């Protein structure tokens, strides 16, 4: 009980010093709890949506994973509705018509489908939709010239009843007026929805007045969904997909689960970084608190307190700090989750705060992380406090230095750093990316730990060099700042290490991102000969209408040629006896000009001959395929043929590496026309003026806004934007770790000022002005921040360069160091150090000289 009282007294006596550490704990816990609440809320939202939109049993066409992509949706005969309505246990049955691959266009010709990856779904306004949505204005669609849209899409795009929109499907383009607005009774996570009447939906979406997309059944009272499914399965036999409401919800949740898992673990990874950085702050805080209370701890030992009691006293303080920080962190985490939901809403995914889900495990995890991390972080300072002898403590206001421990620490740090460097070298020299990735991970961990441990040794060297460049310019004040930074290398190293971690990740990701852009740009310049590339950013295949528009431009002489690019599913019979389901890339012979693919045997143009094909280098090696071999090929949905291997392509390219090519004419000879897949992408070459041809292609495809027309400059810009957006998101998440690191600098300086109170008073007494004192503290902060930046940026560039060597194995062979970013981050670190010192410097400047001198 005495230990607890003593700990509580010390905790509240030093509550100001504990505040920043509590903030570090709070931020670490907040990120973890916020991530869990956010992903749990997303899961709850989607579960409710799936449950509200599914009938007791749903019947759909059986999916064929090997089926060719023809653009025509799978359907069921509509008379199946009456047949299933009479099965045992069914109260009623109704049909559903829908297509998830449509594009919605406003009256200005702009594509207003979601840009977040969520689908645009067109369907019929039937019993299923009426059960999960309600009309909020207007009326249901009546006839082929009216549609209903969802309220979220209407709000985002400024649509209202009476406006004209276009609904573009693979079957037809329909122009209609909005007859009404419907709102989900649950949350719409971001899809755009548009509804026709039943007959119009059949014609404009399925191109068949007697077809439907699915049949929904409602169970009679007392009949379970499983019993109804058994009756339906017995009635239909095979050839159909029959699922209960629970199975539909589970299937949808599984499809969504992979996306949520990636998001969840990515966010938790950044939370882990924040926790790691927070550990340095807490260790530093307690080390300094113990050092400042050495005389007090000595008195406790002198009057009978044991080492264990002193140790426990410090650990109890840490426990209290962990509890306070965790409570604040859990609350902040819920706030962070709400903020993320609002951010997702701005991006187009609607998440309602009424669905906020806080599971019982979330606060438990938050408390476990906050308390355990804090107590572990305080253990070493507590152990050090317990080892101070009473007489040594009473003689000295600081803990005695352990030179032997410092030497051992330096040796261990150098050994770990050397081992990490060796692992990074092994990664860069690896011949397989999988092997190199393991070495890269090991190298990152070992060099990070090594730099943290060897930080105090490096501080003595690097800070002196930085001082010559930065601090000596400020005369005696700069020299005093240098002396203060070097006074306790362990503290300086730990403070800089927190900043080092975040900046190392920023530097490594910048190098990888810049190298990817540079490599892809170089690859495009070397291999892509096409002037224009036409594709959908959402993965939709190219419709017949858009394909015909490009063909018309070719006939008119605006384009020299247009190249199809289709993916054809086949089964190959290989020389080693294996049968393998795979895909061939079907294209015209002009594709050899559009993509300058290198070969290791034969000529690529020969692969576009009659009954010929190419294979990739590794595929040929793995299966014993040689130039001139004939491979039996079974086209899914068509005939079988023997195709001669006329070329073996190099796997060194990042574009289409390993693709197997065949002429579209060869495919057409063995596949029925209605089984011919749609183009995934199309290429075109200008005839004459490229700028005029570019304008003509964009104008001709203006009625198909779901497709993007890009020249090579556009493609490079898109690539840079995509990687840039990803990096900006990562940098935003890493900012949390950097904020915690900045708090560490603030805390170190604040405690350092308290520790040097008497010294500061003496310096003021002999003539040091307040302005000079504040400048000294600011310069000390700047040099610590620059020290952390040098370590972090150097370490990060090493990681990034090694990662690029692994990417080179996948064809991305250009290493590019983003020097503007690296330089900006380095000088930005000086600004961060300057800002971190403002409050400690201000407090030091206000210190009363006589009181400071009288401080023990």
UniProtKB/TrEMBL annotation:
Compositionally biased intervals (Basic and acidic residues): 61-72
Subcellular location: Cell membrane
Topology in membrane: Multi-pass membrane protein
Superkingdom to which the source organism belongs: Bacteria
Record bears the keyword Acetylation: no
Residue ranges of domain ABC3 transporter permease C-terminal in the record: 270-390, 733-848
Domain MacB-like periplasmic core: 19-234, 492-694
UniProtKB keywords: Cell membrane, Membrane, Transmembrane, Transmembrane helix
Family matches, as InterPro entries: ABC3_permease_C, MacB_PCD, Macrolide_Exporter_MacB
Transmembrane among keywords: yes
Residues covered by region (Disordered): 57-77
Family in the record: Belongs to the ABC-4 integral membrane protein family.
Name the record gives this protein: ABC transporter permease
